[in-house]
Structure formats: structure tokens, C-alpha cells
């Protein structure tokens, strides 16, 4: 809780100090930005009387149960003005993300999924400017109006909106409803898989996140309780793969799981642009691919949800992750031939698995393939692909390329120089490229006696082994 009363959206300065200082300390000491959980219904009855939902007798509809207070009426312009004014004040201090929650509503004769009988009491106020009683649509539109006004004034703020009728379960309004309109919300809530995220995965409930990603590109936000995760961080990676905006909590430095999750978070940072902004390719429920084709990057994330070790083998269309049709890739865990990719990953029980397994190698296959695509330079060369430049990184003179460590030479030139058809080395800087590790480009007959494992020759005569 950060506000003076939940639902008030007024920063609790007395307890937390000034908001400006709080935002500054988060940024300077932890490298974080500030997100706030914004409640619509409020725990106090002391606000302007015009903001509250009213029953047929004109009384405030009380909020009882998990919270106590008063339901608000989002169609009330008094509430809209008050909420916009208070949220704007927070945003001016540097808050960067707002999660809109607690705006459940229903009217008699509809089933909006709420079990709370009280919340079934509609707003009968004649002073709010809505139908009497207020319709579900008017309620939903009132919440969205606040979001619109906030977005117009603060276009950089990120907004997650829970279902504006059913709240956390996110299951009343169609998921696409009013997303993508100008100044609308950015993200959905991850279906409440926050309490025991590990059990939700093992029970199968949270597999719906995979289905969601097949259907929608609207980002999900979810914060998860890691206290029930295992030492392989299975739950962490499942939600990292299916929710583009992830919050975590539930473990402390003294907990057994702390170091494992700390390492997972470090790895998450390496992969974050892929997981948060990449294209999601669902091969099946246990094999997800995140790819940024324009950057030539991808990662495969596989899951073993069973209690015994298994080898996950799947094939998929290589072009679905940006691998050119004529490319040939043969690396441990992934083989690509004639446009078909075959993944084979051995996964311990109740664990995730990655391909590539090393964080620094995740870009390699795609960077190399990107080299073979026509570039502006190539067009000036009559459409012929520009040979990649390679730099030998062997410590001594290499038996095949004949070059010393650090020398850069186009491989075709190396062939002409009679120093063998194979190049072993590290990809050197070229136009728009930086680094990577090239294995061997070698025809089988040339490999004999070289001590280098031969590769297969693709139809295009090029072969890259990593
Ligand atoms: Zn009302």
C-alpha cells in the first residue's frame, strides 16, 4: 500500500517521504522505475459524496468483505476529475506505470462473474448523468475515460487495465475490446495467476497463457509469487515466456530459492528484449520461440512439466522464426534443413531449457544468416552476396586459413590464396554486424586429415556450423 487510503491515489508522504525522493532513490540506488497499483473502489467513505455508487434509496453501496469502504461510480464526472487530478500529480513526480484494478460492477440479470452479492447492486443515482440504473457499458466507459485523459496528458505512462467489469479474473469484456484505440490502456492483467504461480502452472490452469499468446499480441502484465517456485525456476520462466511485463516477489535473500532466482533474473535481463518485445512463436505448449527477426535474434524456451527427465523433440517451419529457406544449421539442439527446423532438447524434471544454452551465443545463428541476405552493398555488386569477413581467433597460425590470430580476410580470398577452403574463426566486424563465433565452413573432401569435423554442404554451397 502506497496511498493514504487504498483507492484514494494520494501518496502517503508521512510514511514514505516525498514521492520525488522516492522515485529518485529507486532510480539511483536500484535502477528501477516506480509502478503503482491504482484502485478504483475506495476504502473510505470520506471522499466527495458525488463519487459513490448509490442504491435505490440513495445510500452509498458499501464495499464489504476483503475490503471495506465504498464502491465508486466511474460515470460520475466528479470521480473522473478527482482521479485524473490525483494520478496526474503522481505522474508528474516520475511514476511510470499504473495498474488499474478494482472496478468490478454488475447489474441485476447479468452475470459478470462476480460472487459478491453487494457488488451486484447497480448505481441508481440520478445525478451521475448515466442511465438509471447505470449500464455495464457506462461503467466500463467511465474507467476508460480516466485512462484516456491520463494518456493524453502523459503519453509515456504505461497502463495495465484489469477487466473493467469482472476485475482480476479478466473474463468478462472481450480481450480486444477497446485496446488499440487512441489513448487506451496498453496491457492486460495475467488472469490472476499471481498467488501460487507454480501450482497454477502444474495444475494446467496457467497453460491458458500459452493459448493467449497464440491469439493476442496485447501484452500481459503479471506479478508472481516465487515463494512456491522450485530451484529450477520453472514458474519464473513460464511466466517470463508468456507475460511480456513481469513483476516478481515472494523471496528474500535468506530464502533457499534466492540465489537461483537471482541468477534467473540476470539471465532474464539478457533476454528481455526478446521476451518483452519479440514475436512469440508457439511451436506447442512446451516449446516457445521468441524472435526479433530484424535483429537476427531468437531464443527457444522449452519446458518439462513432468517429474522425470525427458527429451523434447519438435519440428517447425524455420521461416516462422526468420531462418531463410536455403539455410543449413547444425548445432547441438537445433538442426535446420530445407526450411524445416528440428529442435531436440534434453530437459531435467520440472525445469526449463534454453536454446542456445549460453547467453552470449543466442544471437549467432541468425546474425550469420543475416549476412547472407542481400544488402545495399550487394546490389551494387550486381546482386552477388558479399562474402562475410572472418577473423581468425586461433592463438597460433591456423592450419586451414593460414592466418595469424586477429587477421581479417574474406573467406573467398582465403580460398583463392590456397590456404584451404575452410575458415575457422570469429566473425569480424562488417557493415551492421559486430561479433559472433563462426565454426567451420568446410567441404567434406577438404576435411580429411585436417582434424576438423566436416560439415554438410547445403544446396547453396554454404555451410555454417556453430
Ligand atoms: Zn452512478
TrEMBL record:
Basic residues bias locations: 381-401
Domain of life where this protein originates: Bacteria
Chain segments carrying region Disordered: 376-466
Listed name of the protein: Uncharacterized protein
Species whose genome carries this gene: Naasia aerilata
Amino acid at each position: 500500500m502506497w496511498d493514504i487510503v487504498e483507492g484514494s491515489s494520494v501518496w502517503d508522504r508521512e510514511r514514505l517521504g516525498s514521492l520525488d525522493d522516492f522515485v529518485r532513490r529507486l532510480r539511483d540506488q536500484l535502477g528501477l522505475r516506480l509502478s503503482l497499483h491504482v484502485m478504483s473502489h475506495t476504502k473510505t467513505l470520506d471522499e466527495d459524496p458525488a463519487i459513490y455508487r448509490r442504491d435505490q434509496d440513495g445510500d452509498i453501496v458499501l464495499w464489504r468483505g476483503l475490503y471495506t469502504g465504498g464502491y465508486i461510480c466511474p460515470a460520475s464526472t466528479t470521480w473522473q476529475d478527482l482521479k485524473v487530478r490525483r494520478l496526474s500529480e503522481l505522474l508528474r513526480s516520475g511514476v511510470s506505470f499504473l495498474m488499474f484494478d478494482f472496478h468490478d460492477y454488475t447489474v441485476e440479470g447479468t452475470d459478470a462473474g462476480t460472487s459478491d452479492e453487494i457488488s451486484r447492486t447497480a448505481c441508481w443515482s440520478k445525478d451521475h448523468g448515466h442511465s438509471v440504473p447505470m449500464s455495464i457499458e457506462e461503467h466500463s466507459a467511465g474507467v476508460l475515460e480516466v485512462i484516456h485523459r491520463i494518456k493524453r496528458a502523459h503519453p509515456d505512462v504505461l497502463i495495465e487495465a484489469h477487466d473493467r467489469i469482472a476485475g482480476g479474473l479478466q473474463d468478462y469484456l472481450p480481450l480486444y475490446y477497446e485496446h488499440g484505440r487512441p489513448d487506451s490502456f496498453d496491457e492486460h492483467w495475467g488472469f490472476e495467476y499471481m498467488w501460487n504461480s507454480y501450482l497454477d502452472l502444474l495444475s494446467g490452469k496457467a497453460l491458458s497463457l500459452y493459448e493467449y499468446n497464440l491469439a493476442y499480441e496485447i501484452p500481459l502484465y503479471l506479478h508472481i509469487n516465487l515463494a512456491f517456485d522450485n530451484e529450477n525456476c520453472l514458474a519464473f520462466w513460464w511466466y517470463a515466456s508468456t507475460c511480456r511485463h513481469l513483476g516478481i516477489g515472494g523471496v528474500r535473500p535468506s530464502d533457499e530459492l534466492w540465489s537461483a532466482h537471482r541468477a534467473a533474473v540476470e539471465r532474464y535481463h539478457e533476454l528481455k528484449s526478446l521476451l518483452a518485445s519479440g514475436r512469440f512463436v508457439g511451436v506447442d505448449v512446451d516449446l516457445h520461440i521468441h524472435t526479433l527477426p530484424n535483429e537476427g535474434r531468437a531464443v527457444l524456451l522449452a519446458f518439462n512439466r513432468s517429474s522425470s527427465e525427458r527429451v523434447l523433440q519438435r519440428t517447425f517451419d524455420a521461416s516462422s522464426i526468420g531462418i531463410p529457406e536455403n539455410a543449413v544449421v547444425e548445432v547441438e539442439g537445433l538442426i535446420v534443413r530445407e526450411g524445416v527446423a528440428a529442435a531436440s532438447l534434453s530437459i531435467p524434471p520440472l525445469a526449463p531449457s534454453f536454446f542456445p544454452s549460453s547467453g552470449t551465443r543466442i544471437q549467432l545463428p541468425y546474425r550469420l544468416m543475416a549476412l547472407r541476405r542481400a544488402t545495399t552493398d550487394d546490389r551494387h555488386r550486381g546482386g552477388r552476396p558479399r562474402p562475410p569477413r572472418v577473423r581468425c581467433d586461433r592463438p597460433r597460425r591456423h592450419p586451414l586459413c593460414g592466418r595469424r590470430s586477429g587477421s581479417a580476410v574474406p573467406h573467398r580470398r582465403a580460398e583463392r590464396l590456397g590456404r584451404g577452403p575452410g575458415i575457422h574463426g570469429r566473425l569480424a566486424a562488417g557493415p551492421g554486424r559486430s561479433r559472433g563465433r563462426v565454426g567451420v565452413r568446410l567441404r567434406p573432401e577438404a576435411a580429411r586429415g585436417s582434424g576438423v569435423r566436416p560439415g554438410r554442404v547445403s544446396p547453396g554451397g554454404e555451410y555454417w556450423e556453430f
